[in-house]
Amino acid sequence: MRKFMSIIASAVLLSACAGTPVAPEAQFADSEIFMTPKKTFVEIPCITHGSIAIFYNGTSIQVDPVAGRGDKKIDYTQFGKADYVFISHEHGDHLSLETIETVSDENTVIFSNQKSYDTILQRGQVLSNGDSGELNSSISYKVIPAYNTTESKLHLHPKGNGNGYLFDIDGLVVYVSGDTEPIEDMKTLGKVDVAFLAANNPTMSIEQCVEAARTIAPKVLIPYHLSQTDLQAIKDGLEGSGIDVRLHESLR
After folding, report:
1. What pLDDT sits at residue 69?
2. Local structure of 190: helix, strand or coil
3. Could you say which DSSP state residue 189 is in?
4. 158 prior amide bond cis, ω within 30
5. Strand partners, 60
6. Per-block average pLDDT, block size 10, for the chain (252 residues)?
7. E strands along the chain, which residues?
8. What is the DSSP pairing of strand 59-63 with strand 51-56?
9. Is-contact 52 38, C-beta < 8 A?
10. Which of 48, 47, 64, 45 has its CA nearest to residue 162?
């Protein structure tokens, strides 16, 4: 495990007067920090487009790390080496060999869908829809299908190919949708604390993102995989739902 992170269980700060856990300062720009039921803290940097990271108790996870799209460049060296890399599918805005090299060393475990492994990676472990496992005693994962359902888009993300990921981090459940439209599997996710839902055409429209969010009913929604998405329209569409919609321009 990586030991450079300060967001670990032993570093939880308690307020002197009330004993209320106080979240530590974020280590990286544009991060969200969430508290687990164990009152420990998870940092999730909202890096860019479809790329996020998860840091918890010395464990570092990168999801779809891609350092460059167009003129936008991300310095991935700031994150150090990852314990785990999860790839949702083989499209270039989700899979970058160069960026994987930046965040990997000989101890990094790479997980991907079959097509990513076959056509680009040729290393790591393949995960299929429905697979699940444990990374350590604190973090487990489940693979959720990610695919298009609209007839004209079926070829973009065919059913059975792409992965979404559901992480349970000491009881804090984080769903990273990958490239998908609303699907039946979203009705059976159970409790979701934080959902990252793709929100751009030709993946998921604003209306579909709102529909998916209402189906999943997370405590917090962070629209990601953005292009020219009208983020305020998503927030307006979920008014009164009780879902805390948090908007990050970094995820365009």
Report:
1. 85
2. coil
3. -
4. no
5. 55
6. 46 49 94 98 98 98 94 96 98 98 98 98 98 98 98 96 98 98 98 98 94 98 96 97 98 96
7. 13-14, 21-22, 31-35, 41-48, 51-56, 59-63, 68-69, 72-73, 84-86, 109-112, 125-126, 132-134, 139-146, 162-169, 172-176, 194-198, 220-224, 244-245
8. antiparallel
9. no
10. 64
- Which residues are 224's β-sheet partners? 198
Q: Are the C-beta atoms of residues 64 and 87 closer than 8 Å to each other?
A: yes
Query: 180 near 146, Cβ under 8 Å?
Result: yes
- Give me the torsion for CA of 42, 47, 49, 52, rounded to 10°: -30
One-letter amino acid of 251: L
The torsion angles phi and psi of 32, rounded to 5 degrees, stand at -105, 140
Q: How many whole angstroms from its chain centre is CA 101?
A: 19
Query: How many helices and strands (H and E) does the chain possess?
Result: 4, 18
